[in-house]
Amino acid sequence: MTSEPTPQTPGGTAAGAPIPATASETVPNSPVPGSAVPDGSGMANNQLQMVHRLPKAPLVDRIAHLTAAATGRRVIHLGFADAGFRDMQARSDSWLHEHLDRASSSLVGIDIEDEGVELARSRGYEAYQANACRVEELEALAIEPADLIIAGEVIEHLEDPGAFLRALSVLIKPGGELIVTTPNSHGLINIAATLVNREINHPDHLVMYTWRTLTTLLERTGWTVSNSATYVAAVKETDADTPAEKAMVIGAKLALAVERGLSRLGANFAADGLIIHATRTN
What is the three-class DSSP state of 215? Predict the structure, then answer.
């Protein structure tokens, strides 16, 4: 999925570089990730500790942002096959793996789906089938570690995201970087959908993250969050036939347009996508 705003790269302030932030950036006296909320400080104080200041996170074009991060680097792309969306991605030139291949110095794809891996191999890509939540499967691949790991729209599908994030340590070089992208549970489009008793979610999604929950999970599994950005997705082409279906498509497009407008006014986390950069803590 891509968004319409002018592409912005991870580096270079003129292009709107992501602003460093960590999960422990909260209101005064809030606990660091993993610590318990202190007892005996009064109900009001405990409630304030649940309020977290969000960082500045520029609105970017997802594909342009990730491609810029991959430029000249060895990249491992997890969940690259885009099961269920290959035809749509081909029509719109929005298959991320293809864009990464053009920019990176070398590219490896890892996916749990056999069919997608075999198709990529038939097209000349280096690709492997493995369950990335299992460190022993990743170790068995015996592939050269990467400068950059990209996990694009993967983590929300996983039953054990903590095991996944820990396992990635065997795939990354010292000083390397991980970029995770995922839908934002607090994006405006889903909030708007609740007003008409709807939820917009892929049927295979198990978890929806906020900036706070995702960065806390990263830090608890051995990663140090460095930068954040947001993106607005495009509405996928559908065969909407009924008036209700057509109305939903129009409503989604309007909500995404409002997200872009709010982001330009500084409410970046109204956008429906999160991008988090992190490095290994140890």
Answer: helix
Per-residue DSSP letter, 170: G
Whether the predicted pLDDT of 1 surpasses 90: no
Would you identify the CATH topology of the domain 13-21+56-280? Rossmann fold (3.40.50)
The rounded distance, in Å, linking the Cα atoms of 4 and 136 is 40
Q: Is 74 helix (H, G, I), strand (E, B) or coil?
A: strand
pLDDT tens-digit readout, 164-181: 999 999 999 999 999 999
Using alpha carbons only, how large is the chain's radius of gyration in Å?
Answer: 19
For 194-219, write each residue's pLDDT tens digit: 887 888 888 899 999 999 999 999 99
Domain ranges of the chain: 13-21+56-280
3-class secondary-structure state, position 126: strand
HSE toward the beta carbon, residue 281, CA cutoff 13 A? 12
Q: Tell me the pLDDT tens digit for each residue of 133-144.
A: 999 999 999 999
Residue with tokens 């000083």: 175
Of the pLDDT bands very low, low, confident and very high (cuts 50, 70, 90), residue 33 is very low
Q: How far apart are CA 262 and CA 57, in angstroms?
A: 13
Beta bridge partners of 59: 230
What is the per-residue pLDDT for 8?
Answer: 43
**pTM of this structure:** 0.78
Name the residue type at position 44.
Answer: A
What is the residue whose two structure tokens read 């606990």?
31
Strands (E), 121-208: 126-129, 146-152, 172-183
DSSP E strand stretches across the chain: 74-78, 106-111, 126-129, 146-152, 172-183, 223-231, 273-280
Question: Residue 113, class by beta-carbon neighbours within 10 Å (0-12 exposed, 13-18 middle, 19+ buried)?
Answer: middle
